[in-house]
Fold:
Amino acid sequence: MAFLELNNVSKSFGGQRVLSDINLSIEEGEFVAIVGYSGQGKTTLINLIAGLIKPDKGEVSLEGKVVTGPGPDRGLVFQNYSLLPWLTVQENIALAVDQVFPGWTAEQRLAHIDKYVAMVKLSHAKDRLPKQLSGGMRQRVSVARTLAINPRILLLDEPLGALDALTRGTLQDEIANIWQTERKTVVLITNSVDEALLLADRIIPLTIGPGATLGESIPVTLARPRDRKGVNHDPEFKRLRALVTNQLLAFNANRKVSLSRKLIRPDLLPEDLEAPRVNRPPRRPGEEKNEVVVTS
Amino acid sequence: MKSFKIDWLILPLIGVACVLLTWTVSSATWAKDLPSPLKTWEASKPYIMEPFTKRGEMDQGILRFSWYSLVLVAQGYAIALIIGTPIGFFLGLSTTFTKTFDPIIQVLRPVSPLAWLPLGLVLFLGTGKDAGTYGALFTIAICSMWPTVLNTAVGVRAVPQDYLNVGKVLKLSRWKTLTKILIPATLPYMFTGFRLSLGIAWLVIVAAEMLTGRPGVGGFLWQEYNALIYEHIILSIITIGVIGFILDRLMSLVEARFKAIS
Ligand SMILES: Nc1ncnc2c1ncn2[C@@H]1O[C@H](COP(=O)(O)OP(=O)(O)OP(=O)(O)O)[C@@H](O)[C@H]1O
Ligand SMILES: [Mg+2]
Structure:
């Protein structure tokens, strides 16, 4: 029995099948990345593992025990940070630490919180409220809060999705470093193939819904630590990137009704020659049309 | 800088002048019984200049009367919040509770204080207590409770699922979820309710005092009407308005503080 197992897990929302027949097994200490398109059920999958939602069919088990609800053994870093806005950085983490380590003395807890605040390089900002932090800083608080409860498995739901490319790179390095020291089992959800290749031991693509399921896993055997700049010239990295990208593109090509695009209709009104010549700003109502394009 | 002064000083003063003018003209022409601003000022002077004196039960400085009214409002308002906030939480948390009690709340909500007061008096007449006071408290509480109830319920329903998920992942107990997540997340809405409730409580006090004859601004107003001293009616109206305005401003400040955090 693997450390984390999902057996034939399916989930629908209101008759709409989102995930079907998900099978996944992850060993202890493994870093697995799940890559997929937006809106195909990545958050749904991680919420199933976290126990926030229940599968319609199949089961999730961690260390042999069936998951029946959420718990601090599965540390979830939410896609949208989910920091409590009325608590400072320190207090947000304290809420988690106080709950999970009730037997500790106050000093022990404070020292523990400080350690994780320092790990994500936020000691200078620990008395600030979330709204006084940048997006990248908030994300680091969210990671620190989850690491501080010492979960058995770390679930990261597009943790860097909302950040700019530069910050994203820095935080990827931080996550890689933290993983090197803590050696936790990690499930990372991402929409970036490069991010998955930099961080994971194994990449699993998520197909396209309705009824998305997991594709074939692709092991990433690149040596660690992986250097973000150097890796671009590594032939193995290039090969893997092409492999994963092609798989994802293939899912997309296979679907019948594939994408909904916003098209702009040509302006067919007779032009008023008297009107002042200006760049026409907003579009007329009705000028925009949504069209579904069939690509297969 | 200049336009700033115009905005908050000159323009409001022009507004006051317009009202004073209309008032003067009215009292001189079609409303002969309406005392002019000057006469009102003359007659009100003893009440304003010695605002805290007590010459007799129904002859006291205007701020002393206001103080009595404020104390009664504070008590009724406190009852309204203590009862209204938990009801709001139950409404927000439980759809069964909402389905059970929402219709009755919607029916009771628009009932005027004037309609509740007699019932309040009747309720407490038999208890041998001071029925006037208790009836007034009952009326203030039941009339001013609704904004707190409804805003709290809306606030609880608006708590983002993400915050609740944080609590679920940590396995917070029900009590901790309430105190650490639900209440802080709802506070801005609760304070909107508290502010609106205070406004209503202050409206109700006047009606309650008029009908029970308790000393206070409302009671004073009614007594002076019966005594044909119309200047004092105007004095009372202005006092009630100014105090209501100040209360609302104070609550807005508190409310803004909570809004700023979340
Ligand atoms: N609670 C819910 N009720 C109804 N439908 C839902 C619910 N949660 C998710 N869905 C639907 O399930 C599908 C997958 O949603 P999900 O949030 O898992 O996607 P995602 O892959 O995480 O997307 P993104 O990359 O944008 O975060 C979407 O079509 C969404 O509308
Ligand atoms: Mg998602």
